[in-house]
Amino acid sequence: MPRTMIERGRFAPTPSGRLHIGSARTALAAALAARAAGGRFALRVEDLDGTRTREGMTRAMLEDLTWLGVRFDEGPERGPHEPYVQSARGALYLEALSVLREKGLVYPCACSRREVEELARAPHGREPVYPGTCRDRAHDAVLAQAHERGRAAAWRFRAREGTVAMVDEIAGAYAQDVAREVGDFVVYRADGVAAYQLAVVVDDIAMEVTQVVRGEDLLASTPRQALLYEAFGARPPRWAHVGLVVNDQGQRLAKRDGALSIAALREAGVRAQALREALLDTLGAGPTQDRWTPESIARGALTLRALSERLPEIAPLIAGSTEG
Ligand code: GLU
Question: What's CA 286's distance to the chain center, in Å?
């Protein structure tokens, strides 16, 4: 008998610093979307990138979210899809890699980051397009070359030719020719850890996530993820990419400089209720949120100025809170 599909949303932060107001807004949107759909809401800790992950940040982040009134039904503490921490899910990613290997959809790559950058001559500030150097080489030869270089090979996914199209609930129609704009992308890193693109898809499938509400910075990753859903023969979730919070120059907030972290706002005496209401307002969610959907969120970034019009207490904290 087919199982009845329960709706499940999730918030999947990388615990690399204190939660800032943009991520908090996204978390709130994701929680609302799950609730409004009568579904469950999960917290997944994305700590695969050891260099970015900082001890104690998960707990601090949870405290900030709880303060703001964001509640999780599932997460590191409990839930049917344990563990909810990516560093403890390595076996699943390896298994997924072998599925892709069996299907001939991935190949080993011995290129260093620098070689890829040199070959691809990427325009400044853009990720280089992988030129396919190792694509048609014998796997044994690539693995041996990587070994000679004193490291393991990375594994790349063969991006099929053509446009990958999707509809985002906030951004609308979105299409990307992954093969031309990104190239074959890494799913398993040379340091023996799953790449974000693979881990996020494997986890969202395993955890039966039906709706992915997250920051707009990840919209450009979604077509790659759509290809992975295709490869695993799994049904993709509904995607909704929430605009980032930016300063008047359009620069996004940086986690590292903390001036507009939830912690800083708390310390400055901003009340949780006031912040929550201001953020809900920017999400197009009034006091009754039962029929709210991500489609109510305006497209594009939210400026701090627009936010401070709703919440004047934050104005003095705004200076120096963005990436420079
Ligand atoms: N861990 C990612 C981040 O913090 C988000 C992943 C996702 O929501 O798909 O940027």
Answer: 26
Cβ contacts of 2 within 8 Å, gap of 6 or more: none
Ligand 1 centre and the CA of 126: distance in Å?
19
Is any ligand 1 atom within 6 A of the Cβ of residue 214?
yes
Distance CA 199, CA 95 (A): 11
Name the architecture of domain 90-202.
Alpha-Beta Complex (3.90)
All CATH 3.90.800.10 domain ranges in the chain, comma separated: 90-202
Place of tokens 């299907």: 103
Spatial separation of the C-alpha atoms in residues 40 and 37, rounded to whole Å: 9
Contact call for residues 282 and 300 (beta carbons, < 8 A): no
Query: The domain 8-88+243-323 is classified under which CATH number: 2.102.10.10, 3.40.50.620, 2.40.10.120, 3.30.1300.10?
Result: 3.40.50.620
DSSP string, 34-50: HHHTT-EEEE-B----T
CA of residue 1 to ligand 1 center, whole Å: 34
Model pLDDT, residue 295: 92
Asked whether 42 lines ligand 1 (CB < 6 A), one says no
Least confident of 36-40, 70-74, 109-113, 115-119: 115-119
Q: Is the CB of 252 under 6 A from ligand 1?
A: no
